[in-house]
């Protein structure tokens, strides 16, 4: 059995989470799974460490803060993974910031946005993203980190 090549230790990825992601695990309907945000963060940090990636895993309920972080990632990170949450469907400022980011971008969602309300079927973020992972809950977060590692490592 072969294992994926690790990304060089100098690789940095910013994992940005938008509004209400801090409430994961508290939804009675379990739309976003049962893992709390701190549990998801720990899972992601463990996955990143196993791949030799320095992960900056953050969350904000404020659009401007997400834009600021995307701008800060320029020159500081090789990749951005983003779950813009509800801002996915409305934020041109986040799209514009992502379009100015020179590295790789992966859009991720806990739920399958195409099985939900019609307004969730259009993502502004997708225009900037190299790929989209949706509907796999916390596993999708870990898969996004693995996919980002491969993109950075290959230089694709």
TrEMBL record:
<comment type="subunit">
    <text>Homododecamer.</text>
</comment>
<comment type="similarity">
    <text>Belongs to the type-II 3-dehydroquinase family.</text>
</comment>
<feature type="active site" description="Proton acceptor">
    <location>
        <position position="32"/>
    </location>
</feature>
<feature type="binding site">
    <location>
        <position position="83"/>
    </location>
    <ligand>
        <name>substrate</name>
    </ligand>
</feature>
<dbReference type="GO" id="GO:0009423">
    <property type="term" value="P:chorismate biosynthetic process"/>
</dbReference>
<dbReference type="GO" id="GO:0008652">
    <property type="term" value="P:amino acid biosynthetic process"/>
</dbReference>
<protein>
    <recommendedName>
        <fullName>3-dehydroquinate dehydratase</fullName>
        <ecNumber>4.2.1.10</ecNumber>
    </recommendedName>
</protein>
<feature type="binding site">
    <location>
        <position position="96"/>
    </location>
    <ligand>
        <name>substrate</name>
    </ligand>
</feature>
<dbReference type="GO" id="GO:0003855">
    <property type="term" value="F:3-dehydroquinate dehydratase activity"/>
</dbReference>
<dbReference type="InterPro" id="IPR036441">
    <property type="entry name" value="DHquinase_II_sf"/>
</dbReference>
<dbReference type="InterPro" id="IPR001874">
    <property type="entry name" value="DHquinase_II"/>
</dbReference>
<comment type="pathway">
    <text>Metabolic intermediate biosynthesis; chorismate biosynthesis; chorismate from D-erythrose 4-phosphate and phosphoenolpyruvate: step 3/7.</text>
</comment>
<dbReference type="Pfam" id="PF01220">
    <property type="entry name" value="DHquinase_II"/>
</dbReference>
<keyword id="KW-0456">Lyase</keyword>
<dbReference type="GO" id="GO:0009073">
    <property type="term" value="P:aromatic amino acid family biosynthetic process"/>
</dbReference>
<feature type="binding site">
    <location>
        <position position="120"/>
    </location>
    <ligand>
        <name>substrate</name>
    </ligand>
</feature>
<keyword id="KW-0057">Aromatic amino acid biosynthesis</keyword>
<dbReference type="GO" id="GO:0019631">
    <property type="term" value="P:quinate catabolic process"/>
</dbReference>
<keyword id="KW-0028">Amino-acid biosynthesis</keyword>
<comment type="function">
    <text>Catalyzes a trans-dehydration via an enolate intermediate.</text>
</comment>
<feature type="binding site">
    <location>
        <begin position="110"/>
        <end position="111"/>
    </location>
    <ligand>
        <name>substrate</name>
    </ligand>
</feature>
<feature type="active site" description="Proton donor">
    <location>
        <position position="109"/>
    </location>
</feature>
């Amino acid at each position: 059995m072969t294992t994926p090549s690790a990304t060089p230790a100098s690789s940095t990825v910013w994992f940005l989470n938008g509004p209400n992601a801090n409430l994961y695990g508290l939804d009675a309907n379990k739309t976003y799974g049962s893992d709390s945000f701190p549990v998801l963060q720990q899972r992601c940090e463990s996955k990143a460490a196993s791949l030799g990636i320095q992960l900056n895993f953050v969350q904000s309920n404020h659009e401007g803060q997400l834009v600021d972080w995307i701008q800060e990632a320029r020159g500081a990170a090789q990749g951005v993974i983003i779950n813009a949450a509800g801002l996915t469907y409305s934020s041109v400022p986040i799209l514009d910031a992502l379009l100015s980011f020179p590295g790789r971008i992966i859009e991720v969602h806990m739920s399958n946005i195409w099985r939900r309300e019609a307004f969730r079927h259009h993502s502004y973020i997708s225009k900037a993203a190299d790929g989209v992972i949706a509907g796999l809950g916390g596993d999708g977060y870990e898969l996004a980190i693995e996919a980002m590692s491969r993109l950075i490592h290959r230089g694709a």
